[in-house]
User: What shape does this take?
Amino acid sequence: MKQRSFAIALVSQKAQRQIEQGHPWVYDTEIRSIEGAYKNGDLVDIAGEKGTYLGTGFVSERSKIRIRMVSRNANDRFDEAFWARRLRYAWEYRKTVLDEADLSCCRVIFGEADQLPGLTVDRFGDVLVAQTLSLGMERIKLLLFPLLRGLLEQDGQRIRGVYERNDVPIRELEGLTQGRGWFGSDSGGTKTQIVENGITYEVDFENGQKTGFFLDQKYNRRAVARLAKGRRVLDCFTHTGSFALNAAHGGAAYVRAVDVSETAVTLARDNAVRNGLDGVIECQAANVFDLLPELEAAGERFDFIILDPPAFTKSRRTVGGAQRGYKEINLRAMKLLPRGGYLATCSCSHFMTDDLFQRMLRAAAHDACVSLRQIEARQQSPDHPILWNVPETDYLKFYLFQVV
Assistant: This one.
């Protein structure tokens, strides 16, 4: 193994196999020893049991994910030029895979998928909103954020500031504190407007969920709009009303947008007014699990139902309960739809695999006594890239069906 100035973590055969298969994490139980001096959050080299160099990554003594790899090249120098190159690769990728209009609201950095583990950066117009979920990224953010802002500004993009949304409990697993606020000096208000698929939204990046707005369904919302013309649409778990707005923008005759949160319903209603679609969209605060059987009992019918629930499971232990929840809402939706009606249904949980999701849909269709004709199977938008050797980056399942 080539001599490095870093400490060397010796890992098990199991960890070596996983690294050689492309996975970038080393768990605490797979580390045999760490030779040499280092500080928590430093870069360390990783070696197999025979001393073979496997890669370099950030060590985190508090986390079960003990090392997050950033490179497999023993010759890399982790200087400013290295990190600037990583950021440039990420931005150039977005410029390639997204429509130009969508670059003003997109995910610029997607953690491990961009070889920047634990870092998420979303762009909302002239603001970058960052979540730093690993100690290693926290240690170098003073370098990364100015580099990223400078990269976009050199490319003609106007950026007024970077806002940190680090108010998430997962940071505590890395020994980090929670908080939110502007990185560096205050850069003004914490609301901004974006345009996605021709629809204008106000984004509250200080108080909204996660970084303020869910960008991963961008092109799935567009697919819904294509099917909505002239139809009566029910949008369940509407949140800010994004699917409802796309359906109305696509020419739906009527859209009912439902969410259990009064705050979400108010946001959806405001967005409908903002886009001149309040004459088409009716917003309702209700529990979808209660509402769907009530609508069925009342004999109400819709031509198109959209199910975009929050993640029902965030661990393998609760997948069984999640499956039952997904089946319940999909079964009820299928019963509400007439023959020839349309269903958009999805799961944003990595642990609810595509195989499990498909099995659930087949069981729901069987119990509802309907057949499903698949129109499209979709995933997250390409600014949330999927690495095939990192299953954790593959999380969104989205299906469009016709009931036949």
Observations:
- The chain has nine helices and 20 strands.
- The radius of gyration is 23 Å.
- Residues 328 and 385 are 30 Å apart (CA to CA).
- Residues 8-71 form a domain with the Archaeosine Trna-guanine Transglycosylase; Chain: A, domain 4 fold (CATH 2.30.130.10).
